Amino acid sequence: MTDAHPGTSDTAEIDLIVHHAKLAPTRQDGPQPTALAVSGEHVVAVGGDEEVLRGRQRTTRVIDAGGRRLIPGLNDSHLHAIRGGLFYTLELRWDGVRTLKRALEMIAEQAKRTPDGQWVRVIGGWSPFQFAERRMPTIAELNEAAPNTPVFILFAYSRVLLNHAGAEAIGQAPENGGYIADGTPAAYALLAKLPAHTSKEERLVSTRYFWRELNRFGLTSVVDAGASGVAYPDDYSAVATLAGRPGLGVRVSHFLFAQSPGTEKASWEHWAAEEQRAVNQAWDRLNGFVLRGAGEILVWSASDFEDFRAPRPELPESALAELEEVTRVIAAGQWPIRVHATYDETITRILDVFERVFAETGYTARWAIDHAETIGASNIARMKALGGGIAVQDRLAFAGEYFLEHQGAQAAEHVQPLRQIVEAGIPLGGGTDATRVAGYNPWISLYWLVTGKTVGGAQIAAPAGRLSRWEALRIYTAGSAWFSGEENVKGLLAPGQLADFALLTDDYLDPRAVPDEQIPAIESVLTVTGGEVVYAAAPFQRWAPEPLPPVSPSWSPVAEYGGYQQGDGPHLTGEAA
Predict the structure, then answer these.
(1) Per-residue pLDDT at 346 exceeds 70
(2) Could you tell me the pTM of the whole model?
(3) Which residue, among 305, 303, 296, 301, has the nearest Cα to 183 in the 3D structure?
(4) Which of 163, 210, 414, 541 is disulfide-compatible with 85, CB 3.0–4.6 A?
């Protein structure tokens, strides 16, 4: 029998029907419908083909899914999407490149077409262990690939490599032919010296291409936890402009981020007094662009940077005092909070502050820890008692080998104890922390959640603590929706839910059809946001949205990762037309 939205009448306008599909069930052992109907931005009926097709009207678009798997739109609960969009068309990405030889060829190819004043830049999302050579490039190799064009290579806020031209471009005396900087503070400082797009139109075009790229993987929503290098509100104008137009492909909930060290308290006091939260700024998309709260850096001094090539940092008492002062300002205004914490020891110190401040201020809003790679049983229990959530990402999929080397096999085995978190009943969301620390492909993250393996093939987390495929999908959809307060309307294929969904190239939920190692190769062939097709690939091109505006110079090539290819074209370096 067809499930229908309680508010749906027989005369409701049915805008879209997708049938002959395998809908992801709302329960792990639940029934598997084959069709759904959409009215406006909501799913209004789910059931069998024959039943749902009875609601077809003269103006209804009907899509035959060809027996493919249909899932709720993926929702990355920690993706720096606003910054990622601003820089998307300035970056050459090594996501999925299988050999260092090919990666260096890409540098050489891009250097030939990079305009004066710009750089060839590879800003995260790769691992040296994904290469057959299993190492980083040398400075000599970068100089050979690009003798005259500045090159900037970032590995996971851990190491920066500059060729000779790059070192000279930032006024750094070359050492051994170029420059190498280690550590997160050094990476931040060097990143700040890179040129950005110079016009609003360039930023807008870059963001549009990034949104379409996210749609290609089935993402329809992101929660942006704030970002360094992005000034509020000026650098948010591209997303605000897109939100003011029809056809927004990605719903964005965002959190504000401390702008610079030493100004945090003044910034939070200003924002708490002046900014309006939970107000939709999108023109024709429910929950399209919404400010949600404060995070992920509340104060800069209280961050335990995710440099897994270095020892765990200790938070000084002065940092905890600053964190307490700022948390009291935010909690007094009942703003939702999310805070960066990589290690269990850091989580202990942060929870000491939160327990005290939340009790003093009567704080009842939603709050969460981001990352939590080494959280232990005691802090899981404390978080449960305090009502917090945990947003996890696949950062160790790109740096797990270094974690294993520096922290040891026993610590690695217990990273991200997802099974224990789920069984504790703590809200759990999935994500990537893209685009610098990890790539933005959600299927690599889902692969990590299911297997605990890196992109280089190393087994890091113990399989016993991992999730089933259905559970991983659930935290990447309905689970992630909790972090923006949308768990009642987003993340399921059910009547009354927002009509956000993706039709997949391969059946993720069938391990016989898709072995674990093939999960990263999955893409969407049809992505729908708010009942509107925002991305379509073969054999569904007839449903494709209007093409994006051209960009120059020439697109640069992107190699495969587990089989995935660029949809609208690879990334470029240079100025947009």
Answers:
(1) yes
(2) 0.95
(3) 305
(4) 210
